[in-house]
Specification:
Radius of gyration: 16 Å
Distance between the termini: 36 Å
CATH architecture: Roll
CATH superfamily: CBS-domain
CATH class: Alpha Beta
Strand content: 5-15%
Helix content: 25-40%
Largest sheet: 2 strands, antiparallel
Number of strands: 4
Strand order of the largest sheet: 1-2
Length: about 160
């Protein structure tokens, strides 16, 4: 199964100069916990999560309307392509301990987001079917979630 078969295509996005309250509003409206951050050409440059925004508000002592996304976003970025195999995307999630991967085209432009939730929904919906091989195994999703949730060493 390919990433494009599972990814969310209607992903919202923010710009680095947007305020954090705008990103938080996108997350609220789309019921998600992260938003890709894109540059003027639509290329993904970072991700910002609800946790990033909360920690920025706490550490900066300012309201979300006063905080720019660039001061809250994660500078580390891992992504995948629509044509990638889902198993490769799962490996990337495990290796980098991320719950979501922006899906980008050949130019690095946002085309969607693949989340651990997308994988879990497919694993659960295919459970109990007559198919000999499910596109996403529940055990693999569990292993991915376990790897993502493992404590990391302090940096």
């Amino acid at each position: 199964m390919k990433v494009e078969d599972l990814m969310t295509t209607e992903a919202g996005s923010s710009r680095p100069f947007d305020t954090a309250d705008r990103s938080a509003k996108i997350m609220w409206e789309r019921d998600c916990g992260a938003v890709p951050v894109v540059d003027q050409e639509g290329r993904v440059v970072a991700m910002v999560t609800d946790r990033d925004i909360c920690m920025a508000a706490l550490t900066q002592g300012r309201s979300l309307a006063e905080i720019h996304v660039s001061s809250a976003m994660s500078r580390r970025l891992w992504s995948c392509r629509p044509q990638d195999d889902v198993k490769e995307a799962e490996k990337a999630m495990r290796a980098h301990q991320v719950r979501r991967l922006p899906v980008v085209d050949a130019e690095g432009k946002l085309v969607g987001v693949l989340s651990i939730s997308d994988l879990a929904r497919v694993a659960v919906s295919s459970k109990g079917t007559r198919a000999k091989k499910t596109p996403v195994a529940a055990a693999d999703v569990g292993e991915t979630l376990g790897a993502i949730s493992s404590p990391t060493a302090p940096k």
